[in-house]
Structures are given as C-alpha cells and as structure tokens.
Amino acid sequence: MENRIVVITGAGQGLGLAFARRFAQAGAHVVIAELNPDTGRHAAESLRAEGFSAQFEPLDVRNPQQSAALVDRLAVQHGHIDVWVNNAGISRLAPAEQMPLSYWDDSIAVMLSGAFYCAQAVGRHMLARGAGVIVNIASVTGMAHHHDRAAYSVAKAGVIALTEALGIEWAGRGVRVVGVAPAVVLTEMVRATVAEGQGTLDVFERRTPMRRLGTPEEIAEAVFFLASDDASYITAETMRVDGGWIAYQLF
Amino acid sequence: MLLKDRVAIVTGAGRGIGYGIAETFAREGAQVVIGELVEARGREAAEKLTAQGYRAQAIRLDVTQPESCRLLCEQVMAEHGRIDTLVNNAGLFILHKSEDMPEADWRIQIDVMLNGVFFMTQAVARAAMIPQRRGSVVNIASIGGMGGWPMRSAYNAAKAGVIVLTEVLATEWAQYNIRLNCVSPGVTRTEMMDVAIKQGVANVAKYSNRTPLGRVAEVSEIASAVLFLASERASYVTGENLRVDGGWVPWANLNAVGFPE
Q1: In a domain, A19, yes or no
Q2: CB contact, 8 Å: A216 with chain B?
Q3: B244 to chain A: which residues are within 8 Å by CB?
Q4: Is residue A246 part of a domain?
Q5: Residue B252 lies in a domain
Q6: pTM assigned to the model
Q7: CATH number, domain at B43?
Q8: Can A152 be counted among the known catalytic residues?
Q9: What is the pLDDT of residues A8-33, one digit of tens each?
Q10: Angle between the B39-51 and B16-27 helix axes, to the nearest 10 degrees?
C-alpha cells in the first residue's frame, strides 16, 4: 500500500477517519474527501501531525460534477488513484409511514447515488489505467431490517447490489469492487442515534454473539485487506464485520 | 508475521489449497500441523516446509473418525500446549449424474466434508479452544455450496451444510472467544482440478469464461483470505462466508449453454 493514493469519502470523523489512519499507517497517501470543511481539514492536519501523508479535499458526494472534478484534480496532482472508499453516510431515522420524504431522498442521494457517482468517476480513471479498487461501506442493516430505517437500510442494500453489479462488470479489466458490512460501531453517528432515543448500546451488545460493539479499527482492517493485493481474487463481494450479528437468527 | 508462535492445524494439507494454506501460515510464523489421511503425503508436505526453515509436522488424520480427531488434538496439546487456529480443508469430489450416484459415493463425500468438519472442530474446541477461551477456525466451503452445479449433489450439499454449520458454531462459541468463518473459493488451480480435467468433467477455459475476472484462482489467493480470517486482524469477523471467486456467484452469466450441453 506504500505510496498508493487512497481516497476516502466522509473521512472527517468516525469510520472514515479510522480507515484513513489504517491506510496511512501502511504508507499510503490518503485524501480526506469530506463535506464538512472543519472536520475534513482537522482530520488531514492531525494525520500529518502524526507523520502520515494526507490532504483534505471538499466533496459533496450528492453532486456528480464534484466527484468527477475531484478525480480529475487528483489524477493531475498524483498521476493515479489506487483505492477509493465510498464511506460517506448519514442516518435519517423515522417510522416509514411518517418519514419525511427528504429523509428518503437524502439517504438515497448520499449513500446510494453518491456511491455510484463516485464509483463512475473514479472507475473511468481506474479502467483507463487497468488498475484500482473501490470499497463500498455497506451495513448489516441492508441485510436484516429494523424499524425506522427504511431509507438507510434500502440505501445500504442498494450499495451491496452496486458492489456486485460494478464488480462483475469491471472484473477482468483491472478494477475490483468490494464492500464491507459493519454492524454497530461506536462512532459519533451511533452516539447521536442513541442520544435521539433510537436504541441503547446494551440492546446492540446483547444482539451480538460477541457481546460487544465493533471498533472502527476492526472495520478498518477489513477495508484494508479487501483493498490490498492479498484480495486479488475477491470482487463483487461484501464482507460482514459484525461480531456474528447476521449469523445469529434465534431468540 | 501475523501468526508468530501460533499453533495451527490444517486438514488435508498434503497438497492443493490445504498445502498452500499450510505454507502461508508457516511463513507467517506458525507451528503448522498437517492433518492428512495419506501419511506419506502429509510427511512429504511437512518436509517441504521444514526444508524452507519453517516449523511443521504431519499427523495422520481421518476426519470421518471422531477418535482420530481426538487423538490428533491430544498429541498437539501434549507437544505444544495450545491450538490457536484450525483450518478444515480436507475434501474430495466424486461427480455423478444424481440418478446414478452410488450410495457409497454420496456417503463418503458427506462424511468427509460435512461430518468431518463437525467432528474435527468439536475435537479442537473440546481439547483446546474452549478451555483456552480463544481460537479461530476457518472452514473451506465453496461457491458450489451456494447454488446448483449439475453432477455435484453431494459436494454442493456438504459445502452448503458447512456454511450454515459455521454460523451455528459462531453464535454458540462467541462466548468462548472462538471465531469461525468460511472461505468459499471459486475454481482454483490445484491437483484436484487436474484430476477433474483428466476425468473429462473439467475444462479450464470453461471455468475461466464463467468467471468475470476471466481466470481461475491461484492457491495463494485463497490462502491469503484464510490467513486474514485466521488472524487477529479479523477480530470482529465471525459467522461470515467470504467468497473468493472472481465474481462468479453474482454474475448472471448470459453466456450459459445450459445442462445438459
């Protein structure tokens, strides 16, 4: 991974920042592509302060012109983009019959359409070079559903199918497309969900065979593995990193 | 070295994917125990590894016999005092039109690839992993375990059984800090494939064309996935079946010629 250019969307905090740190530790140059300029800039600065190689680039994944422009800019600056991680996500929860349509639209726009727009933009670059890996951050929520999450879970289920569709289409042309499906990880987004009264941590822990939440570092290890050459025969596949959440189907 | 000083048992590691896994584990610092039905094959494999400066040994193992599994564990515990990782890889396939499948051929495949996985995993859990409150098991399933491949009724049913068995054990033994996962390889270049080619039931070009990636897997590509799942890097991964198949399963395959051709 040394000297590879790795772009991570939504890397200003949470899982995305943990991914950035993991790739940076392995010698990659990481691009923090982030909607929020404060967290994005701060993330890049703190990685550089630790001695890693990082830059911040503003990016609203809902806007395909922005992702296309970012790909072009990075291609000029670095010559190549090796890994792109579609991690940007939002949590807009509400009972389905009451859900404001903006919750649905925003969830699809950020996590499904945004992932496709970025994948298309960077995919063109990677296909032209005959090399590259796209990692889509899905969720077990796209596989086993809980109430109030219709928008989130459908976007994530869509991402799983997107990983398959792009993976098979671009296989044999040098570009792998893979995914990681975490369960509940203790991040800022999850803390906010709990604060909203949308579930308590012990509910999630009890539901998990391993009886604990995952750490961002544990998710990052899977992202790193799938992006690496050690996963050269893996494409169109999403790996669950969930402490046994989906496997457990009894009481 | 991801597996420094870990004790790892790999069944059916005399050749093919099993040997590749054993070699990868040895290179990562493990003491590798090759469990093999054919003693000479196991011994030769262990010697190939020790000749490279790795730590390896072979013990005769018949996974269809719980007593054989128990004895292997007893020997490993006596010599090393721990078992950190088990890879259930031992397998075979005997193809038949299902209306012609002899009872013995059905039974042996289920016995080795489903019963054998359970017996060996149970033995290792009892002898080491449950008392240790630590362990990682990787079961070699197959993309065949996820769908219908004509002529492979026993093989595919056994592999499908392994996938769900792994989920059951993962949920039961998470409380003992034991993780269990599957790797489902796509078609991989091995001696077993050469056998199928000679039998006239395999054709590398057909397999390559059926794979979006356009080629069959190398043993090292399967071994690297097994290594990841066996290691601490996969500390939150359990009950998972990781496909290493070049896109085979999710592809709609409009080139299909159908069966029978």
Answers
A1: yes
A2: no
A3: 231, 233-234, 237
A4: no
A5: no
A6: 0.96
A7: 3.40.50.720
A8: yes
A9: 999 999 999 999 999 999 999 999 99
A10: 30
